């Protein structure tokens, strides 16, 4: 229990280019818990992920985010990563000239801090082990980061980073998009292998199918830049079966997007 994280999002509002996207979002994630956020497109899910990680384009205008009582919003992005936040991105960037293994080792060492770097042998052993688990060919260690990777290979690579960095709060933004069923299963196994009391998950997904492989403890529906409904795994099954319209009807929501209009 000693290292079990407590991540609290309270009344979070955020804007991009002067437009408010997140409109007061509350969520608490504790170690050992898997939370899924589902919602139609354009409801602010990726904005939430970017805002939590500290993307400079997203301006927080109200609310707080804390990890074990520490103010996350005050932290620079690298400090957030060192504190144990991790984001597997919906659209990972390609970085030419930086090999995947150099990137991974730098990221691990940045997290471990000066004087406590991982030995090269130990790093390679760990990386190769995790790559095998993710069914990634050895060549991916030496290729430039995400360059020419297929959609599924990029997603596996995000999970590889997560497995090596061992974050405390893992945010996965549509990790299932673009994955065929075998890749989906492998990615889900990677996530499941990391489930522990020392770690909490926020899994953002548009479709229920990922949740056939990763059982969430809590499911939240996002509309209009906030969480409008929460439940257990059965809520995801209901969405799979009946879509989102019944939730909109129940809550009297006409347009579920953040309603930026034009
Ligand atoms: N960087 C950005 N610049 C301009 N608009 C943005 C940006 N990021 C998000 N938005 C807008 O915020 C709204 C919510 O987008 P997003 O968070 O990506 O939703 P979701 O991930 O739920 O599909 C959309 O209308 C989108 O166009
Ligand atoms: Mg998105």
TrEMBL record:
Domain ABC transporter: 7-249
Keyword Phosphoprotein: no
One term of GO molecular function: ATP hydrolysis activity
Keywords, in A-Z order: ATP-binding, Nucleotide-binding
Keyword match Nucleotide-binding: yes
Similarity annotation: Belongs to the ABC transporter superfamily. Ycf16 family.
Name by which UniProt lists this protein: Fe-S cluster assembly ATPase SufC
Species: Paenibacillus psychroresistens
Gene: sufC
């Amino acid at each position: 229990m000693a290292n079990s994280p407590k991540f609290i999002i309270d009344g979070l509002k955020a804007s991009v280019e002067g437009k408010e996207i997140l409109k007061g979002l509350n969520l608490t994630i504790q170690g050992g818990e898997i939370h899924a956020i589902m919602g139609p497109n354009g409801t602010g899910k990726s904005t939430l992920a970017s805002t939590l990680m500290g993307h400079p384009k997203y301006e927080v205008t109200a609310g707080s985010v804390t990890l074990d009582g520490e103010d996350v919003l005050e932290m620079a992005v690298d400090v957030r990563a060192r504190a144990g936040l991790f984001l597997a991105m919906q659209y990972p960037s390609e970085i030419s000239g930086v090999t995947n293994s150099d990137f991974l080792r730098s990221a691990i060492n940045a997290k471990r801090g000066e004087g406590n770097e991982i030995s090269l042998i130990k790093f390679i052993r760990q990386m190769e082990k995790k790559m095998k688990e993710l069914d990634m060919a050895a060549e991916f260690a030496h290729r430039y980061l995400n360059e020419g990777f297929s959609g599924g290979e990029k997603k596996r690579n995000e999970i590889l980073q997560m497995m090596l960095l061992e974050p405390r709060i893992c945010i996965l933004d549509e990790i299932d998009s673009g994955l065929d069923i075998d890749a989906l299963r492998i990615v889900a196994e990677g996530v499941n292998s990391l489930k522990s009391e020392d770690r909490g998950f926020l899994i953002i997904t548009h479709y229920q199918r990922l949740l056939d492989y990763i059982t969430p403890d809590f499911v939240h529906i996002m509309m209009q830049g906030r969480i409008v409904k929460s439940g257990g795994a059965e809520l995801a099954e209901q969405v799979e079966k009946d879509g989102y319209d019944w939730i909109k009807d129940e809550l009297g929501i006409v347009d579920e997007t953040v309603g930026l209009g034009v």
